[in-house]
Specification:
This protein has 285 residues and is of the alpha+beta class. It folds into two domains: 3-220, Alpha-Beta Complex (Lambda Exonuclease, Chain A); 232-282, no CATH class. The protein is built from eleven helices and eleven strands. Strands 1-4-5-6-7 form a five-stranded mixed beta sheet. A hairpin with a 2-residue loop joins strand 2 (113-118) and strand 3 (121-126). Helix 2 (26-44) runs antiparallel to helix 5 and helix 8 (165-176) packs across helix 9.
Length: 285
Amino acid sequence: MNIEANLQLAADRLSNREFDDLSVLDGWLDDAGEAFKQVLRQQLTEHTAQDTIWRMSSIGKPICQLQMKAIGAKAQRKPYNFITQMMLGDAVEIITELLLKVAAVNITGGKDKVQLQVADALIRGTDDIEIDDAVYDIKSCSPWAFTNKWSKGYAGLVEDDPFGYIGQLVGYAEAKNKPPGGWIVVCKGTGRVKVVEFEGGQEEISARMKQLETTVTTIMSNAKFRRSFDPIDLKWRGKATGQKVLCKTCEFCDYLGECWPKAEYLPHPNSEAKNPPHYWFIQDE
């Protein structure tokens, strides 16, 4: 089944008010409404959350980020629009699951609470959806990420995976003893959809599991903190400027300020654009 084509076709018909070949059941609408009410309650009310790194949503992240969390390092304060971004993401994921049902995609499971023993830690989580007995994650993203990462397919995700999405998906799949399917990605800004299939074989799955085991062992042994990423050369028109900036993974890290306290967020000094790109510049430390 071509999930992306089915989803786009159903959305095209709905956009043009063509309902003849589509089924939209009241129960699906009720389920979506209840799901959204639940995430609103989670986002907008005070509750005691289980603050742990031993979650599927966390365990695939870089070791240095998880080490910072484990030692209780101070995370950067979130910007005021963070909560809106989270609620928009939740809404997009719920709508996408509803559209998958309307598109008659073969949904075989999902929303299962799972756990997986990795080294000496028990990793828990709740998966998104199963299609044709394979495990998929539904992800929302910005227009930039859709164009510059997800549109490159699996290779783009392997190249740039600061949130540990591959490790997360493999963990869910191993916990359910099912193959990893991939990611159903929807741009929050445009509504465009891209299905990125997991292209790794068993060797890739084994390598990812080994990586998760290394993460668990490193953290549980209280190993000395090490940065996982080095600064990169800032370039202008293909040539190095002699300045160093942080990589994208470090830019998205909650502990950037703790790890790189002297970093400065500045515009590219050579750019003549009205809104020049900004980078985290670092000095030799």
